[in-house]
UniProtKB/TrEMBL annotation:
Gene Ontology CC annotations of this record: cytosol
Enzyme Commission no: 2.4.2.8
Annotated metabolic or biological route of this protein: Purine metabolism; GMP biosynthesis via salvage pathway; GMP from guanine: step 1/1; Purine metabolism; IMP biosynthesis via salvage pathway; IMP from hypoxanthine: step 1/1
Organism for this UniProt entry: Liquorilactobacillus cacaonum DSM 21116
Domain of life, per lineage: Bacteria
Gene Ontology BP terms: GMP salvage; guanine salvage; hypoxanthine metabolic process; IMP salvage; purine ribonucleoside salvage
This protein's name: Hypoxanthine phosphoribosyltransferase
Keywords, comma-separated and alphabetical: Cytoplasm, Glycosyltransferase, Magnesium, Metal-binding, Nucleotide-binding, Purine salvage, Transferase
Residue ranges occupied by any Phosphoribosyltransferase domain in the UniProt entry: 18-164
Length: 184
């Protein structure tokens, strides 16, 4: 028997093909909304890398990309409430139309902090595109502009999302078996 990452998953929520399809739909909206606006598309590392790669190939207009690494979670599954900038942008944001690409919005603390920072740096507009939304857990008033899928209040991994640095390379989004993190 082959034991591996897949055996740690309780339930698959969204398959690779469902994610590709939703990226196409969101890409069409983004193409229309950002036509001639030359957006700066910001990928929030590392979780949003896979979704970012899908989304930018579906945006059929001029767009620049950059990366930012912020952290609120450390290695666990519970928010620390602290947001640290681990890697800042290379490109100035003043006057730019910004599209943030995220993997998941949970409490909203990370995104709230990021949006505030970009507005403080005089971005012209800041919009949010997230693969997953966990609205039940929201404590900040963050409302994403483009959402792939909603997820229940469970810890999910895959398609960029990790637990202790692992599972990002699963080609789908699934619920991690609680015994995997309860034993740690
Ligand atoms: P927030 O600040 O919205 O509470 O948390 C945002 C970040 O926490 C996400 O970008 C992600 O890195 C992490 N996170 C929140 N919920 C989950 C989850 O269910 N699974 C994983 N792997 N990460 C999560
Ligand atoms: Mg993230
Ligand atoms: Mg993480």
């Amino acid at each position: 028997m082959r034991l591996g990452m897949n055996e740690d998953i309780k339930e698959i929520l969204y398959s690779k093909s469902q994610i590709k399809e939703v990226s196409k739909q969101i890409g069409k909206k983004l193409t229309a909304d950002y036509l001639d606006k030359k957006p700066l598309v910001i990928c929030v590392l590392k979780g949003a890398v896979l979704f970012m790669a899908d989304i930018i190939r579906e945006i059929d207009t001029y767009a620049e990309i950059d990366f930012m690494d912020v952290s609120s979670y450390g290695d666990g599954t519970v928010s620390s409430g602290e947001v640290k900038i681990l890697k800042d942008l290379d490109v100035p944001v003043e006057g730019r139309e910004i599209l943030i690409i995220e993997d998941i919005i949970d409490t909203g603390k990370t995104l709230q902090c990021l949006v505030d920072l970009l507005k403080h740096r005089k971005a012209k507009t800041v919009k949010i595109c997230t693969l997953l939304d966990k609205p039940e857990r929201r404590v900040e008033g963050v409302v994403p502009d483009y959402v792939g899928f909603q997820v229940p209040n469970e810890f999910v991994v895959g398609y960029g999302l990790d637990y202790q640095g692992m599972y990002r390379n699963l080609p789908y989004v699934g619920i991690l078996k609680p015994e995997i993190y309860e034993n740690n």
